[in-house]
Amino acid sequence: MNPSSSSGGSEGQSPEDELTDDWLFLPAELNGDQHLEESRVDEEAEDRGKLKSKLVSAWNSVKYAAGWSLKQKSKFSKSSPVIMLGKSYDLKDQGERERFRRCFTSLLWLTYRRGFPPLSGVSLTTDSGWGCVLRTGQMLLAQGLLLHMMPPGWTWSASKPAVKDDMDLLNSTERALYSQEEMEKKTRRHSLDSYLDRLMEATHRRVVKWFTDQPTAPFGIHKLVELGKSSGKKAGDWYGPSIAAHILRKAVAASADVPNLVVYVAQDCTIYLEDVKRLCERPPPQSWTSIIILVPVRLGGQDLNPAYITCVKKLLTLQSCIGIIGGKPKHSLFFVGFQDDHLLYLDPHYCRPTVDTTQQNFPLESFHCKHPRKMSFSRMDPSCTIGFYAKGQKDFESMCSAVNEALSTSAETYPMFIFVEGRSQEEEDARRMSMNNITYIQRKSEHKKVVPSNSMDEFVLL
Hints:
Layout: H1 21-24, H2 41-65, E1 82-84, E2 87-89, H3 94-106, E3 113-114, H4 132-149, H5 172-176, H6 180-210, H7 221-228, H8 241-254, E4 261-265, E5 270-272, H9 273-280, E6 290-298, H10 309-316, E7 321-328, E8 331-339, E9 342-346, E10 352-353, E11 373-376, E12 383-390, H11 393-407, E13 418-420, H12 425-434, E14 439-443, E15 446-450, E16 460-461
Parallel strand pairs: 3-10, 4-6, 5-13
Antiparallel strand pairs: 1-2, 1-8, 6-12, 7-8, 7-12, 8-9, 9-11, 14-15, 14-16
Helix pairs in contact: 4-6, 4-8, 7-8
């Protein structure tokens, strides 16, 4: 499987419930004439592959729309810590378990939806059975946006009651226990806390709206599908983690909704520091733009190379890591952590009705998952995209240092990806193309106009 083919279809059921390859084999009568000349064998194999993909997609559409997915809970050990997006949780401690629960349920969970406006150019009103890589891409971007928009340590509480006004913050018994001055201080403090809570909740809802299933949403399924057309993809196709990374970059670049944020996608497993600097630098005294780094990688051939497991764990322990668009073959998942030899993930393969986010207090429950799930590292598809977030220049430099240290733990001769000074060939070519077709050069103190492509090595570009 190539990096762009790990995508979409089968549901996260227990192994005995999963569809086997035998089920996917086509009937003998569809295999074609065995006596066709050799030149037509490859063409028929391709046709069978397309039909097989359509059968799987149709089956998943029926299965998920009907709600046949099994929402089983994973069991967690109390003897080992759970690592999730740079934080460690000791589950032996009740307070730590609650902290883990709060942090996990605060992650945005973006799943298949049905009943949204038809996607452009087709009649599809659901992404069930084909859009799971786009959904895991949305989840990774959403995590970066929450870090970008929310204060450190923010968590979401579904049970927190709305406060009507400051007088509701203290009951009559509490008022009797304090002097007027103390009452005023306490009321101001509660009022400030209430204001901050309301502000964070408003921001939370705004981020959710950006991913809503409407054509106007900057990171919704309609926008992502539209941007995917330039990569040869259309609604109903299966997307890969590498293509998803480039679609997310285009979506953020095209949006005016997110302030002070850019997305960089590594090329050929290489992060070019000059390219990042060019993206993030702003005129003095403005600070660096915050950045999301997306790194498409392939960690083995058909299966995950076990030598990379330690490195993947190390990356998930970094606070700069915002998750991994990955999964198992034909089944995309959003990896956010691990415990021992199992990955912790959010699964997009649950089809829900589209939520009307134009309502003032639209329900948020279906955008948050209560039950974390685990999967063995051995089942991880080698094609994935790893995400990082840096608030500013110092954070980016710290991230580079921490990531390099994590990459050095790989038992493989070649690291998963590297940082390189300078700029990529693609950026260099773009820079040259942006220059005027005619440029000034200098030769023996003389200035002449020449076509750059005709210049000799002895010429010095000004």
